[in-house]
Amino acid sequence: MTASDIFRERFGTEPEGLWAAPGRVNLIGEHTDYNDGFVLPFALPQRTVAAVRTAAPGEWTVCSTFADDPITFGETEPGEVTGWASYVAGIVWSLRDAGFDVPGARIALDSDVPVGAGLSSSAALESSVLTALIDLGRLDLPLERRPALAQRAENVYVGAPTGILDQSASIRCQQGRALFLDCRTYEVDQIPFDLAAEGLAILVINSNAPHQHVDGEYGARRKSCEEAARILGVPALRDVSVDGLGDALGKLDDEVMRRRVRHIVTENQRVLDTVELLRAGRTRDIGPLLTASHASMRDDFEITVPQVDIAVESALAAGAHGARMTGGGFGGCVLALIEADRADQVVAAVEKAYTKAGFTAPTCWIATAGPGAARL
Question: Where does the Galactokinase N-terminal domain lie (predicted)?
């Protein structure tokens, strides 16, 4: 059943239009976004589609193919709508809080972005609804301002302490490009990322070890980074360079905090190095940077789990140029940079390793860089 199907079934009429927003894979740059750093995501072909029609002012009804009953709400405040519908209510609240006259609407949602896999299914939902309400309400909200409003919905209304990476990718990515984003200035550069032309591919391996961001671990990492920046006397860890890392670590007494800082500082540099290599047409050479990123997340930031570690190790053993976990951690997906004609062999190696370890079988597919949120 599509979004249009469920809209007609629930509301007995046709939607005014369809809006879609994608999930994302973050090529490199993990947990750097809320440290004012650099990230390099690209949009997935998988997306959330919103079928929407305007309704009475001050009333919003949302239904979906992944929930039984529609949910109706008015002008709410953070915490008043919970569950999956809170992401929709959060978008309405964030727009209203920013001074926009948000049109009432009936909304039906469908999505093929895997949930709980670290591919930003929540940002895809937020971005599709946001784009629809902006278009239908003819709201004057430039593209570059939209991710911050969607992020505010997730941070304040839903209560998930995420950075701006996910919403930026879902809204601002372009087909065949990776989005080089400066999370302090919001400046972007669209980096060519046509792997097929080079005989390469990104294999996404869903570990099927689900993760959640609305929990203590993600928040604890963010709090540790913010406290370290305060101790070091800098606005954010983005302001610590690789060259100055040794001095910075010497000012921190806590060993765990030192490891967290080391990850962020070195990860920012890995993003910059990856962008430089991609611009130079040296895509295969980014492989070691991806693998180093994973080791840093595993050892310094401590956000991996056995399923993703085994996926990385087995993909590398099968010939991947590089591999890393992608997303906030504690489960989710791994990406591997591979020769396009080696996909079957790499998948077989990962599946064999999972079977040997007694893990639930992974789900694998080739990811290509798709477009950001738009009306269909």
Answer: 7-53
